[in-house]
């Protein structure tokens, strides 16, 4: 029974959960173990350089929190970049609107001037044709001259100069396009760098996830060991019950010995009564009394000898049985208390491991949510980058048109 109780030290569970075998005293074990407490009275299990499930769970939890912090910072930076890109987009849209308005006005003016030039060319051709005709009289020539004098340019020189100045102002207002494009390119580069950092953080988080899965497997092993320990405790309880039954049987045998001792005492009382009877007969017959006294003396000596022998054997046997019962009872009681303490400690360790496993599951869920949000933001950023490139192409095309017109 002592050997079975010694096997309930749960060394393997201590090694898997706390990182140490648990055979060293709590004060000397850096990783603690079942039943160990620190200076403040808290349970001591795991620590630095300890390879148990508790240390692995704490490390994975810390790395998951660090990854979550990095993702939060990345989300904040992404939000700032989105704001800058939105501002750049607004400025580009405003510049595009101004450029389009200037282009429309310049196009309308160009069309108007071209129509006027065409009309003048037609008129000059008509005048040349009229002047080269034979037989043109002075009155017809005067009428044509008056008609030419009445013609006017579609816009006055002042209006044309004002329109040219306005077109130049519109073109100069587009001079900030290069700065906007440069700022947008910087934001795009920052966004790409941030996206790369986010991908690295995601890879690190996937590594944390792998570690968390390893911790889960360790916790599963701990649960299996806990089940084995509970079976061993149940077996110890059964052995304790069997021992208590054996103790009851021993107590019953001791009670039988006590009853035999009482019977011997009763028989000694009967012998004393018979001696008294013999003493009475001695008064009537001295010889018979002498012989009876001798017989009684011998019987009394034998009875005393039998009593001493019986008393000694029963007392020694009773003391030996009582000592064995006390020793086994103490051993069983100590083993029972140790088994109960280890079982309670194992339950607490299992509960702590389950709580940490739940926290890991929650962090894993938060990580997946943040990863999906980050991927959505990355897709939005890619869409904004494509739109900005299209806007830049349109602006560059309009600038080329303006340069051609000038």
UniProtKB/TrEMBL annotation:
<feature type="coiled-coil region">
    <location>
        <begin position="233"/>
        <end position="394"/>
    </location>
</feature>
<feature type="coiled-coil region">
    <location>
        <begin position="57"/>
        <end position="126"/>
    </location>
</feature>
<dbReference type="Pfam" id="PF23219">
    <property type="entry name" value="LAMB1"/>
</dbReference>
<dbReference type="InterPro" id="IPR056558">
    <property type="entry name" value="LAMB1-4_helical"/>
</dbReference>
<feature type="domain" description="LAMB1/2/3/4 helical">
    <location>
        <begin position="71"/>
        <end position="194"/>
    </location>
</feature>
<keyword id="KW-0175">Coiled coil</keyword>
<protein>
    <submittedName>
        <fullName>Laminin, beta 2 (Laminin S)</fullName>
    </submittedName>
</protein>
